[in-house]
Write a structure and sequence with these properties.
The structure is a single chain. The chain has two domains: 174 residues, Rossmann fold, CATH 3.40.50.1950; 197 residues, 3-Layer(aba) Sandwich (Rossmann fold). It is built from 14 helices and 20 strands. The strands form five sheets. The protein has an eight-stranded mixed beta sheet, sandwiched between helices. Strands 3-2-1-4-5-6 form a six-stranded parallel beta sheet, sandwiched between helices. Strand 1, helix 1 and strand 2 form a beta-alpha-beta unit. Helix 10 crosses helix 14. The structure holds ligand PMT. The site of ligand PMT has 27 residues, from helix 10, helix 12 and strand 17.
Length: 427
């Protein structure tokens, strides 16, 4: 393998590759280039250091000063500009990137990439870099659908280039269809996924998320406030770490995280069945769903009418008889033990009092390796919120208290513990 001889001394400007956080953003000449500063912001908010390289046509759509301000670095446009090259030469820009994002990528830029052209700064960088490349195309729908463009995309995919989008919708050119550049937040999420260490490669993580809905009649149901955010954050983080992820989700409008297989369910019985189907291949099970412990014994075929209610006292009241639902986590815990205990089983406990004692009871009753306890009486934690504050309750070691943090951060901490458990079991 050929390597660059590094004669340049290490400076604050030449960051070591151990922390892969350097993104080179190539901006092509399309209307979507105006979203460049927003994309830079989405990337820097995730901790990436961003350098921008623009085609000459991109200058028509986005102000370099905006990109410079958002990224905190000078913006490169010209290949042979003595002043620009004096600051950081273009090969070094290509070498130091941990990932190159091209957003927007026009049809012309895709064609040049496929053809191996190097007739301006951006195409030269794309040919010189050894970093993975992520492309976010944006163009007129007919240009996108054209066999020439599709052949170029196919060729680039075969060479290992990743794509995000284009999305369908109204296009600036007046047409409707596929051709919109993906949202900057979605692109930033893909960058994060592509650069994440694949520490869960080879694992299959089965997760339940959200609340269940237990119908009374065609319009009414018993449910709870779970939004699914906690379970979806775990699913997204596990997929980023390279796991096969199956997410059994109660009703929620949350989008499916990248690379995750989603199984939508409504009731606890459906969730139970979906988990039973998926469990055999799972090396990790995480029960983050708020499963209804009970369901109405009878589901009325038609809407229950007020006038039809007599109530036992004849006062128009409605008596509901509830029957227990299966305990999914307890069954998974028991089955995993019976199978030898290689699978890591994690439960959650949402409690408003005696948090740790209740979590400890669940740990042993449901035969879990770990219970994540959340105090739902606390503001900004538990149901619906974007953050959570949890205690990891273990069978054989001290509880670990995690301070209030965004749910994705809690998910990361949880996956670190799960990885360690799986490593122990594989030994
Ligand atoms: O979805 P969010 O809005 O982000 O909120 C996240 C959350 C608060 C729902 C989540 O963090 C959480 O705590 N989930 C578990 C909530 C709960 O109802 O816990 P529980 O104490 O009822 O159940 C204990 C454990 O057994 C849970 O892992 C639950 O999934 C599981 N269980 C419970 C009942 C049942 N019939 N089957 C089960 O598998």
């Amino acid at each position: 393998m050929s390597r660059r001889f590094e004669s340049r001394p290490q400076t604050a400007d030449t960051v070591q590759k151990s922390d892969p956080r350097r993104v080179l953003l190539g901006i092509g000449g399309g209307i979507a280039a105006y979203k460049g500063p927003e994309l830079v912001r989405a990337l820097t908010a995730r901790g990436f250091e961003v350098r921008c390289a623009l085609t000459a046509a991109a200058l028509e759509f986005v102000a370099p000063l905006a990109l410079q301000t958002m990224s905190g670095h000078g913006v490169r446009v010209a290949l042979f500009d003595r002043e620009e090259e004096g600051q950081i030469d273009h090969i070094r820009l290509a070498d130091e990137a941990d990932l190159v994002v091209v957003a927007p990528a026009t049809a012309d830029l895709l064609a040049k990439m496929a053809g191996g052209h190097a007739d301006d700064l951006l195409t030269t960088l794309l040919l010189a870099t050894r970093a993975p490349v992520l492309v976010a195309p944006a163009m007129n729908v007919n240009m996108w659908d054209h066999p020439a463009t599709q052949a170029n995309v196919e060729l680039l995919r075969e060479r290992g280039v990743s794509f995000v989008g284009p999305d369908a919708g109204y296009l600036a050119c007046g047409w409707e269809g596929a051709g919109r550049m993906s949202d900057p937040a979605v692109i930033a999420e893909r960058v994060e996924a592509l650069l994440a260490p694949r520490t869960l490669a080879g694992e299959t993580v089965l997760i339940t998320a959200g609340g269940t809905r237990e119908p009374l009649d065609p319009v009414r149901a018993l449910t709870n406030r779970s939004s699914g955010k906690m379970g979806f954050a775990i699913a997204a983080a596990a997929a980023r770490r390279g796991a096969e992820v199956v997410l059994v989700a109660g009703p929620t409008p949350l989008p499916t995280p990248d690379g995750v297989k989603r199984v939508d369910v409504e009731t606890a019985l459906e969730m139970h069945e979906a988990v039973a189907t998926e469990l055999a291949s799972a090396t990790v099970f995480v029960g983050a769903a708020a499963v209804a412990d009970f369901r109405p014994e009878r589901r009325a075929a038609h809407k229950i009418k007020k006038e039809s209610l007599g109530g036992s006292a004849g006062d128009g009241s409605l008596e509901l008889r509830l029957v227990p639902n299966p305990d999914i986590l307890a069954e998974v815990g028991a089955r995993s033990r019976a199978e030898g205990g290689a699978r890591v089983v994690v439960g959650f406990a949402a409690e408003s009092r005696d948090l740790r004692a209740a979590a400890r009871r669940k740990l042993s009753q449901k035969q879990c390796d770990l219970v994540v306890a959340n105090d739902i009486s606390r503001a900004e934690a538990g149901f619906e919120s974007d953050s959570n504050a949890v205690v990891f309750v273990w069978p054989d070691r001290d509880d670990e208290v995690l301070e209030l943090a965004p749910k994705p951060a809690i998910a990361g901490e949880l996956l670190d513990r799960i990885e360690a458990l799986r490593r122990e079991r594989r030994r």
